[in-house]
Amino acid sequence: MNKFLMLLSDELRRAKGFYIFLLAFAVIGELAALILALVKQFQIDPMGLNNKIDIVTVLDQSMLTVLVIGGVVLAMIVYSIYTWLREWRLEGAYIYRLLSLPGSRMSVYMAKLFSILLMVAGLLLVQVLMLPLINLIGSFFPRIFRVIAWPQAWVHALNLVYLLVPVGITMGIYYYSAGINFLVSLFNLCIIIGSKKSHGWRKTLLLGGLYFMVFVLLQLAIVMTVVWMPLLQSESSCFFIVAQALMIALNLAGAKYLMNNYISI
């Protein structure tokens, strides 16, 4: 456990600059979307005689907000790849020193995984805090901005935010289990393709392609079963959650094999 915590702390330290930039980008981008929406509405209707804008207009109907949130998601995916690419290509000696330490090699893998999950959790928390902040700033312009009173109504009203911060427990498990599954699969793919195993590039790409294809086919099978099978809502939810949990377990078992047997020191 001490080794894991030390590695986790090290991963977070190495990601500090990138993460601060990403948080600033998200906050400034959404505040810019609010300012642009207020300016546009003031130009159209300075006296507030017609419909007012609200948080839904700012976040769901703003291309800038979509680009900001999409950019943050893409940046996290790219960083998840980079965190392994950095080890194999940029700081190759560092990863091998870590893997040579006594104890399970999975602590290295899990430290990287949990560092990404903690960073995502922080971004989601910032997104949640942005909702009352946008509502508060908008309340200073009562002629053109309509305040939504209840916090839960903000999430329910926002399609984009609801994807990131689902209110219901079931939907949260849906989204986050699929997200964790994707992240673990991405990590495994990076290890297959990027680690310095004595394979030719053709064999490496073939193994990576086969792994990716199996992952996609299994996910499609799960989704198609939920969509096309005549299941009750509770049954389809249970099937999806169990299937994702099994896939995560299989992917982690695959990760353990890759860390212990695929990577050569």
Automatic annotation (TrEMBL):
Keyword Transmembrane: yes
Listed transmembrane segments: 20-42, 63-82, 113-135, 173-193, 205-227, 239-259
Keyword Membrane in annotation: yes
Protein keywords: Membrane, Transmembrane, Transmembrane helix
Name recorded for this polypeptide: Uncharacterized protein
Taxonomic source organism: Facklamia hominis
